Amino acid sequence: MTTTLRIWFGALRNTLMSARTIVLAALYTLLLVSFYWFISTREATVGQVFVTYALLILVPAEFFVFQAATLDFARLRKFSPKPIIISAFKLFLVTIPVVLIGALVWWLMNKLQARFPAPPVVFAQQPKPQPIHWATMLITTLRFVLFGIVFPLATIHLWIEASVCDVRASFAGGAKKIVGTIGGALARAFSSEAVFIYGLGLILFVLGPYLFLFVPIHPKGTKTDFAVFILRLLLAFIFIFVGWVVTVIALVRASTTTEPVEVKAPANVAESPA
């Protein structure tokens, strides 16, 4: 646990102190602006319909570019557009099966929840505490574990593996090598170290924004209320950015293994005669 905390706080320090974080912040801001533009654009004119469809492609592209740049930052690489774009395309391909499996699991859980509906709430003159509907509670808990922890952790580690793998070499190795690579990534994803790092990250990019946005504050005056709202929104976005970047960096560094380096003799050394 001490090593894990050292990795996590080291990632936090690098994120807050590095000048390269400005590039990630710019990509993150561009993603937020594009997403806001997408949800706020009304399909009334031909131009607005075109913008909507263009943003439908641009927003996912910006998302994966941001993730690829974060992975490069974690590995202390230089920000180079071509490798980042190639890596972003790999992340996109890896995410497709995870999304399909997630959609299937969500559909199955909806079917399961429909088989065990919660009883209707009856309001009397003196309301009594309602009994716990264990089926609903278990399904809700399972839904949170799967879509809040399992699928995100698996996706991040598949990103980590895909961003450095050689696609041509992986396919040349056959299905056995591909399955082994995926299995290794998933094994690292659900290790105690990775789960602990992800739990610390949840405090920043989920719990922090929740507290900023939903803890009731009642300032006096319309202008003050609006200023407080903008401040809370800004702090929530900052915590999401910092928490996510720190989590990804810490997971990358925790899953990185040192590979043996082959030492070659200098070319100018002649072989001694037998």
Summarize the entry for a quick read.
This protein is mainly α and 274 residues long. The protein is built from nine helices and no strands. The longest helix has 35 residues.
Distinctive features:
mainly alpha, 9 helices
- As a whole number of angstroms, the C-alpha radius of gyration is 24 Å
Number of domains: 1
Number of continuous helical runs:
9
Report the β-strand fraction as a percent range: under 5%
Structural class estimated from helices and strands:
mainly alpha
Low-pLDDT ranges: 257-274
Report the helical percentage. Answer: over 70%
SSE string: HHHHHHHHH
Distance between the termini: 55 Å
**Any idea what the shape is?**
globular
Give an overview of the whole structure.
By secondary structure, the chain is an all-alpha fold. It has one domain. Helix content is 77%, strand content 0%. Helix 3 (46-74) packs across helix 9. The termini are far apart.
Task: Describe the SSE topology.
Layout: H1 2-17, H2 21-40, H3 46-74, H4 81-115, H5 134-164, H6 167-172, H7 174-189, H8 192-214, H9 222-255
Helix pairs in contact: 1-9, 2-3, 3-4, 3-9, 4-5, 5-7, 8-9
